[in-house]
Amino acid sequence: MDSFEMKTKLLHYWRFKRRYIYSATEAGKFKSDVLVSNKKEIIEVEVKTTFQNLKDDFLKKKKERKKHEIYSAPTVWYAKFLPNKFYFAIPKELVTKTVGYLSQSNYGIIEVSNKKITNSKKVFYCKIIKKASIMYPHFNEKLQHQIILRMGSEIIRLRMELDKAMSYT
After folding, report:
1. Which domain does 77 fall in, by range?
2. What is the pTM of this model?
3. Confidence at 95, pLDDT banded by 50, 70, 90
4. Mean pLDDT, the chain, integer
5. Which helix or strand (DSSP H or E) is residue 32 part of?
6. Fewer Cβ in 10 A, N or C end of the chain?
7. Count of domains forming the chain
């Protein structure tokens, strides 16, 4: 299962199981894999397909501050980009290792199943394994606005791709 499929399953989960109104991929200041809002809270989900990929998020050396450093001690400037909760989404086979690795973290864990994607709204692909704690207590309207803008962009791009694909048939 690749990250694209995992993102699709996460969008499906947040929209149909959890009934969040707004959802987008690659949105916000940190280009979150999935960012969702229900007008009360904003949740960020980062997709990890391997355990090493997860560990690398905490080990990378960059000139600018790492996202997880910012999330643990945000400045006033960064506060306007923060979600209320943060989850890592992982395949089932990584659950045991990831739960141990993130046991002391405020981050949550979502297991993404390898079920085949269908058109049914009743099939659920994701399960929360560890609930995320509140990371940032205030609802961030600016971040929600970014989700909405990104949603529109994604719809337009998908329609353009569909139109292009259909014009060749």
Report:
1. 3-167
2. 0.91
3. very high
4. 91
5. strand 32-37
6. C
7. 1
